[in-house]
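User: Predict the structure for this protein chain, please.
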Amino acid sequence: MIRSIVLTCLLALVFSVLGLAGALALPMMREKAAETGFSVTAYRRIGVLQLAGAVGVALGPAVPLLGGLAGTGLLLLLAGAVVVHLRQGDGVAKLAPAMVCAALVAAYLAVLFA
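Assistant: Here is the predicted structure, written as structure tokens:
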């Protein structure tokens, strides 16, 4: 039970912060959009998806189906992030956050449906 709460809170926090920064197109996110070849509008849409995922994950313990769908959606977003980093030839330092977040989401899903 404690693992579920910790993972839920951690993921909801991480993706809320990232999603809000992307949706608001903060300067750091504008730089990342330009660096990866995305438009600011596309990055804003990704931010909105991250926010939706954060809400779904937060509601997951009460509505497991919603949590599972949100977690799956976040895994798909993270897979896309990994692909972008690999195509750009980024090193481990830039690839690691997406991989760590993906592992946390996978752990959340495993605990949610255990």
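The longest helix spans residues 64-87.
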